[in-house]
Amino acid sequence: MVDGVLGESLLVVENTSVFYRSPTGLIKALDDVSISVAPREFIALVGESGCGKSTLGLSILRLLPPNSEIRGNIYFRGVDLGRITNRELINLRGTGIGMIFQEPLSSLDPMERIRDQFAQTIQIYNKKSGMDKSKANNEEILKWLRQVRIPDPERSLDRYPFQLSGGMAQRVMIAMALSQNPSILIADEPTSALDVTTQAQIIQLMKDLASNTTIIFITHDLGVAAQVAEKVLVMYAGCIVEEGTAKQIFSNPLHPYTQALLGCYPRSSKATGKLKTINGTVPNLASEFKGCKFADRCPYKKEPCVADNTPIVEVEMGHRVRCILY
Amino acid sequence: MLGASYTEREILLSVQKLGQDIVVEGRAKGVKRTITPVKEISFDVYKGETLGIVGESGSGKTTLLRALALISKPSAGHIRLENEVIFDGRNGTKKLAGKIQMVFQDPVSSLNPTMKVKNAVAEPLIPLGLSKSEIEERTVDSLRSVGMEDFLEKYPTQMSGGQKQRVSIARAVAPRPKLILLDEPTSALDAAVQAQVLNLLVELQKSYDLTYVFVTHNIAIARYVADRIAVFYDGRIRELGPSEEVLSRPLHPYTASLMEASPLPDPDQKNLLTADIKGEPPSLFDPVAGCSFHPRCKFAQDICRAELPELRTLFFGHLVSCHRAEELSKQQPKNLA
Fold first, then answer.
1. CB distance B265–A201 less than 8 Å?
2. What is the dihedral of CA B94, B95, B101, B106, to 10 degrees?
3. B223 and A266: CB-CB below 8 Å?
4. ipTM value of the model?
5. A160 touches chain B (CB under 8 A)
6. B4-99+177-331, which class in CATH?
């Protein structure tokens, strides 16, 4: 497989909506989301819990739970993922698009040694790519464990996941994901369960090792997004409300929600005054909507906000916002 | 021992050489091991202040709070609250009711799902010997102070995470405690709700004249709420001082690393990608000799591997436990801003 020409999109999500069937009705978790991802981009997907970040990640890999329904098209290298067979989808997962999750210890098999889990991963990859089907040897696994800077990799081979710290387990997960050589790596809050000093090490590692991989980094931590991403997408209640470079989003936030969210971040001591907050609560996604979902909490709310659906507009090169103020 | 501005302040809680051992069952039958998550900790908390305790998971922050509230019996040391001994090295007082309250990290598991809000808030008032009408009055009053007076008849499942945490706070405030121990009270909450809860806590502190010990792993939150900060690592205080001092002029290499690794929402200050920190905290089952930060410290020397540094005053009210603190504080401007 060959990467597309630079600037050409590797992944395109087009008008995609995701619904979850629940006892209280249909929940619209993702509302008409469109994104396009170029090769080797580092994208951060930010927003509060329940805004649809993880749903977007899972819908790309078609890993949504059975009570869900997806509408819209997602293209990977021009291929519509909704139209390919299960077999092709399985081949794509891991090798085309990989994913790592927040809780490394629940992603690893608790009953198997690291050596065996890792060997399987490599074996499956080899099988998929039509290479040697024999079992992966220790050397290959060790090479990966060294790359993710696991101290004492020889001893780690024989360990079970519970014998690893959270940071070490996440390193193993990253090594396994990268051993499949994916074009895109979706990382769903990969460092949220880790301490800051471990988080810094893991993020540095991802930056170093994945220079040829496109990364979609899902996080609720604006600090992390500002530090790692080239491009930032801000989500609210299932919609993308603003998108731009990290610099655009953090030094010139346009959407009232982005502004409010950044205002909530404590930067000085309580002596300097109260923290800014956002009035009201996140809307109920089971109800029907017209207009901007943030309108009820927005200090700039006007009549047209709730009258019609707000289109996303490009304010400056690469900086797009979904708000009638612009 | 502390600076002049502090000597005039009234000490509310005094902790001397507090230790907490935990006996852990080994995997083999009958094998028991003792770990010590909190090791000979001494500090004072002044009336009306917020003492922030920062550190990473496993550093002993929560164990310390549990020991202070006598939820688990400390193994060693003394604790005094308003000059009254509440733990004498062997036994804890039985008359603590209501004086020390605690707010936990997870608002879901800290409220009984089968209990109405009004009963949850009234429960800690029962041992105080108040009349029924007094209890009712205080319950309503506490809930009003957190903006939850309309939720008296509700159950926890009918509330959001932020609302539940408000109820937990109302319950902590209701017995009019001297001291509230807050264990990561906002880390399960979203940014906007977190800001609301932090504002509320600051407000309540003023109106009820409360003293807080506030545990957090988030430096930005500690900077916002705390008057003084204690930095924890492997069960010991490594640095203690006024928040601004500690955060603008960290004296311990660990404090400096912690700040380097804390991501700022500013793409022009990419501290996270340049943070120079290696390794992980030591395991409690595998104690490290000397200063237990030495395997991760870029300034470690022979003495650090051999001897445990004492927590000592370096500047007015600013204490540090590092052999090389004097030398390092002169050598390099550790101001990371």
1. no
2. 20
3. yes
4. 0.85
5. no
6. alpha beta
